[in-house]
Amino acid sequence: MYDIAVIGDRDSVGGFAALGMHVVPAESPEEIRAALQKMTQGSFAVVYITEAAAAAAQDIIDRYRDEPLPAIIPIPGVRGNTGAGMRAVSQSVEKAVGSDILSK
Questions:
Q1: Backbone phi, then psi, for 68, in 5-degree steps?
Q2: Which of 45, 61, 92, 98 has CA atoms 20 to 30 A from the CA of 24?
Q3: What is the mean pLDDT of the chain?
Q4: Is residue 62 packed enough to be buried (19+ CB in 10 Å), middle (13-18) or exposed (0-12)?
Q5: What is the residue-wise DSSP string for 39-52?
């Protein structure tokens, strides 16, 4: 059975524990990169990562973009939305469909 994890600052990820997700508070780039690397080697099918944390580990995320598992999905943190998550979804949809059907 696969698990779901969430990585990011403590304030952004703490509530996900109530949903049964594996919560990994990580603040520094080193902690973020180590946590994400561990999640990619384990039994995780989905790894949510705050947009701010994703910026510190973009090379790791890019390495797994075309892999079936784990799906690494940027989410907004409590400090706001940078739009990186939506851009990533838009790029994936454009790649799959052949055009940007999500733009306004």
A1: -70, -35
A2: 92
A3: 87
A4: exposed
A5: HHHTTEEEEEEEHH
Q: Say whether pLDDT at 91 is over 80.
A: no
CB-based contact 22:38 (threshold 8 Å): no
Residues in the chain: 104
- Is 104 within a domain? no
6-39: pLDDT as tens digits:
999 999 999 999 999 999 999 999 999 999 999 9
For 100, the 3-state DSSP assignment is: coil
Q: What is the rounded CA–CA span in Å between residue 42 and residue 37?
A: 9
CA distance 81 to 37: 24
Encoding tokens for residue 75? Answer: 């989410």
Q: Domain range spanning residue 60?
A: 3-97
Residue 51's CATH number? 3.40.50.10580
